[in-house]
């Protein structure tokens, strides 16, 4: 019994560490959605498609840039701009005229955008799986004490932490961030006080799209992907926003870590229910705090 | 008391007679396509109640299509329940599922509600797609078809019967005091609350009814296809049914029916015309529809009718869900 426990302690520790790094990836996937949801109050289904754009452009740039670490990091910064550009077009062309329209119409507009982007991605790159091979420096396993972990997972976690820090700094320590928070709180009042609401919204959406693209490139370096990955990944991002609460960045950070660890530990503890764990976490949080972990209570 | 024949009564009768005679005039492809369109029309109508009268947008309605279909599939192939009984069991299963999901979701704001129903719908999808008992990605096969058989005409009439049942149930519910209560919660939840209505309870009841009727459509889909696959529950299916309602418009119960038929035909013919670009064409058409024809086809027809026949018009008891922030 003691040997079983001793042996399994390492297994648990392994899973917890894996879960934390997975949390970093989940945060990257959800960061842009959280930001857009919190400021624009739009259900941004296109998030998954923008993620897809980042992944495909990243994979397409791979061969041209070569396999060095520097080239990979450069792709990581450049490819998301394709997603950002598409995002800018969506906000200016489609969202801006419809902010005052009923909720349903925004949903359907976004649904149309998902079809168009996925169709375009399929027309350009086909339906075969693709991958961006990560440089050797990022793929070797790392040993920390008794725990073994893939270096790329640590890298993903590091990128997640940097992204979280930069977004928080931007929101809370810059003049632009003050404008963004004002628009999130009350767009009419912000406009009266001289904030250029339209421009703030566009920039926030573009930033959200860039983050979606970044998550796409990171994932492309991790594993093979296809055109259907966008519509499956976007759901995970939605769950993070629900659990974290109403577009709160800190909420998304906490929710990502909880979901990441629950997912990794649950895969060992209750393998039969592993697909349901993410949603069980969501249901439990909703029972205790219907507005999410760090959200504010708002009732219909 | 003498009454003129009202268009509200004549129209359904004329449409029903035409629909009953239609298979005689159509080829097999058309009959099968319409049979499928009827099932989706019933599915769209089940959501219409929630959307038009309740004013709340559920983005996880596919969960009930899948649960109804899988209910029939599991009951017949795993539990050896006769098909007739299994068919009636499916809406009950869906009602229970809707009670659970609804109980966790109805108290929240419109935006949050949409997101939650989306997430729970996706939960149902991952369970049927991954759990071995439900056949995983390949789904379940060998569902008996019972009296529906494998005859296209019978598929057609079965679809018509289910659509008519859903139509009548929703029509009666909308005319009952409950329909009035539901519209009251849509128009002003605070006032409805002051008037003594329990807003979450009214919404939950509508959600359960909507789920059960959606499950009925799913059950028939399982019977006519003979197989079920997880795709039925994927979230894009929930989006598709909202598209059907939008295409048709929300001004009357004919909207979702027109929309379901239009989209079923549209998808087939766009995919045949441009097999490579159908997604882009469909998406662009949808964007164009939202931007330029917000009332949908039925709304457009109604507007034209009003312009042609300018007489005092009773305001239809429906409206658009109001964005809540």
Give me some keywords for this one.
heterodimer, A: 300 residues, mainly alpha, two-stranded antiparallel sheet, 74% helix, globular, B: 325 residues, 0% strand
How does this structure look, described?
The complex is a heterodimer of chains A (300) and B (325). By secondary structure, chain A is mainly α. Chain A has a domain at 24-226. Chain A contains twelve helices and two strands; from the N terminus they run αααααββααααααα. Chain A has a two-stranded antiparallel sheet. Chain A is globular and about 60 Å long. Chain B has a domain at 24-234. In chain B, α2 crosses α10, α3 packs across α9 (199-225) and α10 (235-248) packs parallel to α13. Chain B is globular, with a radius of gyration of 20 Å. Chain B starts with 6 loop residues before the first helix and ends in a 17-residue tail after the last helix. The relative contact order of chain B is 0.18. At the A-B interface, α5, α10 and α12 of A face α5, α10 and α12 of B.
- Strand segment tally of chain B: 0
Number of helices of chain A: 12
Structural class of chain B: mainly alpha
Give me the Rg of chain A, rounded: 20 Å
Oligomer: heterodimer
Query: From the helix content, strand content and strand pairing of chain A, which structural class follows?
Result: mainly alpha
Sheet with the most strands of chain B?
A: none
| Mean pLDDT figure of chain B | 84
Helical residues, percent of chain A: over 70%
Helix content of chain B: over 70%
Query: What series of H and E elements makes up the topology of chain B?
Result: HHHHHHHHHHHHH
Average pLDDT, all residues of chain A: 88
> Rg of chain B, please?
20 Å
- Gross morphology of chain A is globular
């Amino acid at each position: 019994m003691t040997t079983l426990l001793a042996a399994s302690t390492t297994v648990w520790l392994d899973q917890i560490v894996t879960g934390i790094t997975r949390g970093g990836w989940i945060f990257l996937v959800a960061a842009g959605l959280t930001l857009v949801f919190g400021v624009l109050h739009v259900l941004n289904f296109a998030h998954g498609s923008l993620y897809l754009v980042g992944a495909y452009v990243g994979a397409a740039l791979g061969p041209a840039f070569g396999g060095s670490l520097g080239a990979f990091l450069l792709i990581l910064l450049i490819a998301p701009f394709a997603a950002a550009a598409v995002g800018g077009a969506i906000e200016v062309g489609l969202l801006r005229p419809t902010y005052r329209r009923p909720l349903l119409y925004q949903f359907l507009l976004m649904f149309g955008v998902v079809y168009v982007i996925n169709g375009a991605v399929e027309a350009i790159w086909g339906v075969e799986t693709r991958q961006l091979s990560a440089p050797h420096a990022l793929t070797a396993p790392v040993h920390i004490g008794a725990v073994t972990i893939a270096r790329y997972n640590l890298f993903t976690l590091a990128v997640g932490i940097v992204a979280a820090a930069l977004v928080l700094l931007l929101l809370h320590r810059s003049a632009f961030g003050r404008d963004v928070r004002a628009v999130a709180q009350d767009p009419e009042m912000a406009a009266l006080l001289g904030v250029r609401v339209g421009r703030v919204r566009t920039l926030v959406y573009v930033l959200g799209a860039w983050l979606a693209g970044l998550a796409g490139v990171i994932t492309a370096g991790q594993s093979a992907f296809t055109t259907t990955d966008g519509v499956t990944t976007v759901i995970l991002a939605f769950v993070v926003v629900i659990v974290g609460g109403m577009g709160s960045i800190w909420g998304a950070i906490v929710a990502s870590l909880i979901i990441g660890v629950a997912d990794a530990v649950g895969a060992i503890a209750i393998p039969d229910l592993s697909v349901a764990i993410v949603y069980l976490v969501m249901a439990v949080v909703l029972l205790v705090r219907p507005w999410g972990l760090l959200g504010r209570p708002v009732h219909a | 008391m003498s009454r003129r024949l009202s268009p509200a009564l004549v129209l359904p009768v004329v449409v029903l007679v035409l629909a009953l005679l239609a298979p005689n005039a159509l080829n097999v492809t058309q009959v099968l396509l319409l049979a499928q369109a009827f099932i989706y029309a019933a599915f769209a109508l089940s959501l219409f109640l929630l959307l038009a009268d309740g004013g709340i947008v559920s983005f996880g309605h596919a969960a009930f299509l899948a649960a109804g279909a899988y209910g029939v599939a599991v009951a017949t192939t795993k539990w050896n329940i006769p098909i007739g009984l299994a068919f009636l069991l499916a809406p009950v299963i869906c009602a229970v599922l809707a009670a659970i999901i609804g109980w966790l979701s109805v108290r929240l704001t419109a935006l949050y509600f949409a997101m939650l129903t989306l997430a729970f719908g996706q939960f149902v999808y991952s369970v049927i797609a991954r759990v071995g008992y439900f056949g995983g990605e390949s789904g379940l096969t060998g569902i008996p078809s019972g009296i529906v058989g494998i005859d296209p005409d019978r598929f057609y009439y079965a679809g018509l019967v289910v659509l008519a049942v859903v139509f009548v149930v929703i029509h009666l519910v909308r005319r009952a005091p409950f329909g009035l209560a539901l519209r009251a919660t849509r128009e002003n939840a605070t006032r409805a609350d002051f008037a003594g209505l329990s807003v979450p309870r009214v919404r939950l009841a509508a959600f359960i009814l909507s789920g059960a009727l959606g499950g009925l459509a799913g059950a028939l889909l399982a019977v006519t296809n003979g197989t079920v696959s997880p795709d039925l529950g994927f979230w894009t299916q929930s989006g598709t049914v909202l598209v059907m309602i939008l295409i048709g418009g929300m001004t009357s119960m004919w909207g979702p029916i027109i929309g379901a038929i239009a989209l079923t035909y549209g998808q087939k013919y766009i995919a045949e015309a441009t097999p490579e670009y159908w997604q882009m064409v469909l998406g662009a058409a949808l964007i164009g529809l939202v931007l330029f024809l917000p009332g949908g086809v039925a709304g457009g027809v109604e507007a034209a009718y009003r312009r042609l026949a300018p007489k005092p018009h009773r305001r239809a008891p429906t409206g658009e869900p109001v964005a809540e922030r």
